[in-house]
Specification:
Layout: H1 2-18, H2 22-33, H3 38-43, H4 53-91, H5 109-122, E1 127-128, E2 134-136, H6 137-140, E3 165-167, H7 173-182, E4 188-197, E5 209-219, H8 224-239, E6 245-252, E7 255-264, E8 281-290, H9 292-297, E9 306-313, H10 314-322, H11 329-332, H12 335-338
Parallel strand pairs: 1-4
Antiparallel strand pairs: 2-3, 4-5, 5-9, 6-7, 7-8, 8-9
This protein binds phenylalanine.
Phenylalanine binds next to strand 8 and strand 9.
Subunit structure: Tetramer of two alpha and two beta subunits.
EC number: 6.1.1.20
GO molecular function: ATP binding; catalytic activity, acting on a protein; magnesium ion binding; phenylalanine-tRNA ligase activity; transferase activity; tRNA binding
């Protein structure tokens, strides 16, 4: 019996030694130390032993059991440590490797120009207003002093949806909408960027859809000099601090007087070059003093209040600023074009 126990011990320890995963080790534990294991089996024969031998054999059996259990435990520790080490080795990252750059998008050049202009005017106390692209004929034309049969409607060929609804041809309807909201009380000081639509044939300088930015100030004692000063600040901020502006008489039904605004050429400084077509001046926007009819129609007392408004094409400003020669570049989204405006590379 003693020999059998020793034999079992040697056999078990050998198996523990060669076990190479936790599952196998567990099987060894169950088969040697379990209730139905060989040690229990051997001890069943104890009844045949003398009273003297019995405790000795019991002690030996316990020794064997302990030895096997201890061997299993230490092997288990080894295997677990090895498993952790293998996992660490497999998952190791080399923090000294150079990182993979994350490709990031970029603002569209038109968005950049809009945001730059917004920032400038917000800094002067304006708020940003918005209006619908699908607009009522009333706001796009009538409230802007263009009654139904007014010949000036011919100036803008429009996309009509119904007789009374169209894609707005300008951002000026937001003037009327904003004044209406103010219910005859000034001051009004807004800037309004947005898409506009005209029935134009697309070419290098025309597009059936483009962007405008509208400005409107209504308060007591607003004068033409306020308009001129404001536009001068704008021109210098966009095109350089030594730019000058000049106002030429023009016509818009919703402003009186109306002007066309030119900026001194930023390329030749006024001497005349291909950009300014040898004139030294570049046209950048339309503007004027808000027509009394427009003030009245939107609920403002034109004896108490006066105002100025201006409107410009964002594409035109961006083309001038960045030297872009074809308006269609803005809409075809060729990444080679767009990447030139990246601030990341
Ligand atoms: N809405 C005019 C246009 O589209 C521009 C403009 C705006 C002129 C405001 C005067 C005042 O041509």
């Amino acid at each position: 019996m003693q020999e059998r126990l020793k034999e079992l011990q040697t056999e078990a320890l050998e198996r523990v030694n060669t076990a190479d995963d936790l599952k196998e080790l567990n099987e060894i534990r169950v088969s040697y130390l379990g209730k139905k294991g060989p040690i229990t089996e051997v001890l069943k024969g104890m009844g045949k032993l003398s009273a003297e031998e019995r405790p000795k054999m019991g002690a030996l059996a316990n020794e064997v059991r302990d030895a096997i259990a201890a061997a299993i435990e230490s092997k288990q520790k080894n295997l677990e440590e090895a498993a952790v080490a293998a996992k660490l080795a497999a998952e190791m990252i080399d923090v000294t490797l150079p990182g993979r750059p994350v490709k990031s998008g970029n603002h569209h050049p038109l968005t950049r120009v809009v945001e730059e202009i917004e920032d400038l005017f917000i800094g002067m106390g304006y708020t940003v207003a918005e209006g619908p692209e699908v607009e009522k004929d009333y706001y796009n034309f009538e409230a802007l002093n263009l009654p139904k049969d007014h010949p000036a409607r011919d100036m803008q060929d429009s996309f009509y949806i119904t007789e009374d609804i169209l894609l707005r041809t300008q951002t000026s309807p937001v003037q009327a909408r904003t004044m209406e909201k103010h219910q005859g009380k000034g001051p009004v000081k807004i800037i309004c960027p947005g898409k506009v639509f005209r029935r134009d044939h697309d070419d290098a300088t025309h597009s059936h859809q483009f962007m405008q930015i509208e400005g409107l100030v209504v308060d007591e004692n607003i004068r033409m000099s306020d308009l001129k000063g404001t536009l001068e600040v704008f021109a210098k901020a966009m095109f350089g601090s030594d730019r000058e502006i000049r106002l030429r008489p023009s016509f818009f039904p919703f402003t009186e007087p109306s002007v066309e605004v030119d900026v001194s050429c930023f390329k030749c400084g006024g001497k005349g070059c291909n950009i300014c077509k040898k004139t030294g001046w570049i046209e950048i926007l339309g503007a004027g003093m808000v027509h009394p009819n427009v003030l009245e129609m939107s609920g403002f007392d034109s004896k108490k209040y006066s105002g100025f408004a201006f409107g410009m094409g964002v594409e035109r400003i961006a083309m001038l600023k960045y030297g872009i020669d074809d308006i269609r570049h803005f809409y075809t989204n060729d990444v080679r074009f767009l990447k030139q405006f990246s601030i990341h590379e």
